[in-house]
Design goal:
Structural class: alpha+beta
Number of helices: 14
Distance between the termini: 29 Å
Number of domains: 3
Strand content: 15-25%
Bound molecules: flavin-adenine dinucleotide
Shape: globular
Length: about 450
């Protein structure tokens, strides 16, 4: 269905100096400090169309903001206009059809809470304050992905406001090409004002994390690789190299010290959970910290929120890897040990399962055969010199570059056109370019990991 008319803006327009302006321009990454000329806080799709019309008439650059977690801060611009979707917070769960219609200002914590009231969930991000919008449009990798695919694989319909202000309802029957592009092509094709997801039954989850002293990282990484290689899709597994917090559950001699851990979640038969997770407790001897148990799904989804609070200044480097040989594991352990900020960390996530069931040309997210994803996060205190932690993150990332088979668009910094291309195989990028040329030939939506339209 398509609606074309001249809409009126009924939301809130914030300009510099207005009450609430400074809060509204803040994004998750504390390193980003931009001052838009206008922040158009929208209440519905008509407001979005009106805001885009205003930007067009006044020749303003446009940024689109969902949850505000874009790592390079694409959702806020200097000068220009932010289409701010944060007030669009509705979640409608239909347990009978196992679907949910979710507005773009919703974060995963809010969506999970609403869906879990019915014992349901869909794959989403692992930090509960991350937005559903940007995460889904770039792919969406989380605890449930080996079992039920990416967030974008569970997107079954959307409402989109196009660059010229049309409000379009799309699904695989009405515009399969746009649906293909929304499943991994980022915010390049329009402003999504409603996401319809497929939901799955998800009960309490056997899982958690075990930690060993940091010097045992090479062994922990090998266990991660070897368990992951044979794990059924019901098991989700991440190797983590972090700094132990000064928390009561941490033995005193490990507080503030590097630790290497295995984080896991089991979505199969709950009675099997303890057996499946037992190698985490036994294969390397008794862990120094054992936080395995059975968690409500929402608790699992919030379990690492404290590691990435709002306002954290961070630089992220990430790649998909096909394989992890011993040399790569050793170099990851060695580099991780060189981080200097306690919040800097290195993650390696096992992919596969339902992610790889989907053929590579079925969605714009195409790196489906990758076995692992690295996430290297360099952190510094806002206001301090970021150079050494950014350099550390880049060196750590470079140490496994030889094994990279692509990259995740949602984990890119502002790294230039060549890196955006790495997020997509050549044929995928060509199809994305054609879709962009059809829907946004003037590249209105360019404040993002941009797919430029064809010239002329
Ligand atoms: C702390 C943290 C944890 C993360 N954890 C995960 C994880 O577990 N799994 C994972 O896959 N990724 C994860 N990511 C990466 C995350 O997927 C991206 O940062 C994602 O873009 C965030 O979406 P957002 O809506 O919060 O961000 P925003 O900054 O609001 O938007 C991100 C991009 O999407 C565009 N966009 C946003 N909303 C819309 C819309 N409605 N229509 C069109 N375009 C839109 C924006 O313009 C921008 O380019 C994480 C990031 C952070 C910072």
């Amino acid at each position: 269905m398509t609606t074309t008319r001249m809409p009126t803006f009924t939301g809130t327009l914030l300009t510099p100096g207005a009450p609430g302006y400074d809060d509204a321009r803040r994004v998750w990454n504390g390193a980003i400090d931009r001052r838009p000329a206008f922040i158009a806080r929208c209440r519905h799709a008509d407001d979005v169309a009106a805001a885009l019309g205003f930007a067009r008439r006044h020749d303003l650059a446009v940024a689109v903001r969902g949850g505000g977690h874009s790592i390079p801060g694409w959702s806020v611009c200097d000068g220009g206009l932010v289409v701010d979707l944060t007030a669009m917070k509705e979640v409608r769960v239909d347990p009978s059809s196992r679907t949910a219609v979710v507005q773009p200002g919703v974060n995963w914590g809010e969506f999970d809470a609403a869906a879990q009231q019915h014992g349901l969930a869909t794959p989403g991000g692992e930090i509960s304050h991350t937005g559903i919008a940007g995460l889904t449009l770039g792919g969406g990798i989380g605890w449930l992905s080996r079992m039920h695919g990416l967030a974008c694989d569970n997107l079954i319909a959307a409402e989109v406001v196009t660059a010229d202000g049309e409000i379009v309802g799309v699904d695989d029957a009405t515009d399969p090409d746009l649906m293909w592009g929304l499943r991994g092509g980022g915010g390049n094709f329009g402003v999504v004002t409603s996401f319809t997801y497929r939901l799955h039954e998800v009960g309490p989850v056997p899982g958690g994390v075990v930690f060993f002293p940091g010097e045992r990282a090479p062994e922990v990484l090998r266990l991660y690789r070897d368990l992951g290689a044979v794990a059924p899709r019901e098991l989700s597994l991440v190797a983590v190299q972090v700094t132990a917090p000064p928390a009561p559950f941490v033995p005193e001699d490990l507080r503030g010290r590097p630790v290497a851990g295995l984080s896991a979640a089991w979505f199969g038969d709950p009675d099997e959970g303890e057996r499946v997770l037992s190698p985490l407790r036994a294969a390397l001897g008794r862990p120094a910290i054992d936080l395995l148990g059975v968690l409500p799904y929402c608790a699992l989804q919030q379990s690492v929120d404290a590691s990435a609070p709002w306002g954290m200044a961070a630089h992220v480097k990430s790649d998909f890897l096909d394989e992890l040989d011993d040399a790569a594991l050793d170099t990851l352990a060695e580099h991780a040990a060189q981080r200097s900020h306690p919040a800097s960390h290195v993650l390696v996530r096992r992919l596969g399962g339902a992610i790889a069931d989907v053929s590579s040309d079925a969605t714009a997210f195409a790196h489906r055969r990758a076995a692992h994803m690295t996430t290297i996060v360099g952190v510094w205190d806002p206001g301090s010199d970021p150079a050494s932690e950014i350099d550390w993150a880049r060196r750590t990332w470079a140490s496994t570059r030889r094994l990279a088979c692509g990259t995740y668009v949602n984990h890119l910094e502002d790294e230039g056109a060549a890196r955006v291309r790495e997020a997509y195989p050549v044929a995928t990028f060509e199809r994305l370019t054609a879709l962009k040329t059809r829907l946004d030939p003037a590249n209105v939506f360019r404040h993002n990991q941009n797919i430029p339209p064809s010239a002329g």
